[in-house]
Amino acid sequence: NRGSANLFGWTKDEVVGKMWVGRTFLKEARTGGVLQEISRKIEAQGVVEYQMERVRKDGSRFQANAIVTTLQDSSGKILGFLEIARDITEKLRLEKELRETKDYLENIVQSSVDAIVTTDPKGRITFVNKAMEAMVGVSQKDILLLPISRFYLEGIDEARKIMGILREKGSLQNYDTFTLRSGKKIPILLSASLLRNETGDIIGTLGVFKDLTEMKKLEEELQKTQAHLFQVGKMRAMGELVAGVAHEINNPLMAADTFIHVLQENLPEGEPNRQRLELIQKCHSRIAKIINHLKDFSRQSKLDFRQIDVNEPIENALLITGQQLLNHGIRVGKEFQPDLPKIRGDSTQLEQVFLNLIANAKDAMEAAGRKKELTIRTSLIRHSGWNDIEISFQDTGVGIAEENREKIFEPFFSTKEVGKGTGLGLSICYGIIDAHGGRLEVESRVQEGTTFRVILPVLGTHLGTALEWMEA
Ligand SMILES: Nc1ncnc2c1ncn2[C@@H]1O[C@H](COP(=O)(O)OP(=O)(O)OP(=O)(O)O)[C@@H](O)[C@H]1O
Ligand SMILES: [Mg+2]
């Protein structure tokens, strides 16, 4: 017919009764027995469909799909064959394009760092990408057809709630919730939408789970930093106030002291008022001590930064307190990491910090009344880009009650009996360490003991020199 003339390029006159159909096949098909095979199949089945490259009159080739049936007379005798052939080059090209598009989209979905999941309208999972498999810890083949509610913290209730919002609004964005990996909560941000077919019927849902674990961690860090900054600010304001007050008290105190001296000189030996004056003097020296503390606290004395070895202020602090600790039955363990890099700091001020921490540990262990052990450790902590030196003081004292842990760095907070503690020790330490660009951290278990950690940054030689140069 005209169709076959168009397809193969031969006119009706050129072929009817003259040409063997085999010429429209490739030479290999003719000689390789493929044609014979097709003939056999047609005779056996009456009809056969195949796809093969065919040849036009001008020798060009094309992919064809053909159906061949037998032509029979009424008695069933085969009279000939009827072939309906079609050029499927275009169809194959479209199929290939479709396959490539599909692969491309699949690749995008699988490469997504966010977990992607689809369900049918009943909430049974129909697809998950690799990120989803990793997030919930279940492989693609085990997850299919499981209800999505299994992966919500609040299960079916939450799945219903989400579906409710989807039905009402069509989509859901940035819904804060949790998914589960072997029972463990993972914070996620969920966005979801309904999937519809061409006629608008709901055929399922699409969900994107964004893992917030990392972000939550950063948020926590930020909160900590904010709290720290707040604390520092509070201390500064307090420092100024305290400096003023200390100064004001100091002058009249000195004057009063002089008068006491004069009175004492004028009273004869054995006079009972002399003893009273002595008591007043003792009170005065206590006040003077507090004022000294206050001055330290407000850091009136400017810090004197140098390149120092942290072992130096630690050893100095131990030199001063060593005998006292021994007298109180306290064993001191030293675990010092050798060859620590030098830091930029004020040795005297750091010694002050260590003395305070040691004094606190001693008091806490006295109060606990069991085996008294103070362990002092130093170590280098490497971060990417900078290093810290950590000096920790671990005691076996009474520990710090949870509700007090926030307050201990505040000036004047003390649990010690009146007259024993001013409550300034730790706030002074805090101020000094802060001025060194470091941190003071505490970890404590009631009735077990407390560890204070002083963390000081190790400045790279370049930065250290630059800072010194700027200060000079
Ligand atoms: N190692 C520790 N073990 C248990 N509690 C501690 C320890 N260090 C500090 N504390 C608690 O923190 C409070 C505040 O300590 P801080 O050093 O600021 O003041 P203080 O020791 O009471 O007085 P000061 O140091 O001025 O003599 C203490 O009263 C105590 O309750
Ligand atoms: Mg103290």
Q: Can you lay out the helices and strands and say which pair or pack?
A:
Blueprint: H1 2-8, H2 12-15, H3 27-31, H4 34-45, E1 47-55, E2 61-72, E3 78-87, H5 89-111, E4 115-119, E5 125-128, H6 130-136, H7 140-143, H8 155-169, E6 171-181, E7 184-196, E8 202-211, H9 213-266, H10 272-297, E9 306-308, H11 311-327, E10 331-336, E11 343-345, H12 347-368, E12 373-382, E13 387-394, H13 425-435, E14 439-445, E15 449-458, H14 461-471
Parallel strand pairs: 10-12
Antiparallel strand pairs: 1-2, 2-3, 4-5, 4-8, 6-7, 7-8, 9-11, 12-13, 13-15, 14-15
Bound molecules: adenosine-5'-triphosphate and magnesium ion.
Bound molecules: adenosine-5'-triphosphate, magnesium ion
Uncertain residue ranges: none
Instruction: Name the strands of the widest sheet in spatial order.
Output: 5-4-8-7-6
Q: How many structural units, i.e. domains?
A: 3
Strands, count: 15
CATH topology of the largest domain: Heat Shock Protein 90
Strand content: 25-35%
Mean pLDDT: 87
The residue fraction in helices comes out at 40-55%
Q: In the CATH hierarchy, what is the architecture of the largest domain at level 2?
A: 2-Layer Sandwich
Span of the ends, CA to CA:
103 Å
Helix-strand string: HHHHEEEHEEHHHEEEHHEHEEHEEHEEH
| Oligomer classification | single chain
Biggest sheet descriptor:
5 strands, antiparallel
- CATH class bucket of the largest domain: Alpha Beta
- Rough outline: rod-shaped
CATH superfamily name of the largest domain?
Answer: Histidine kinase-like ATPase, C-terminal domain
The radius of gyration is 44 Å
**Secondary structure tally, helices:** 14
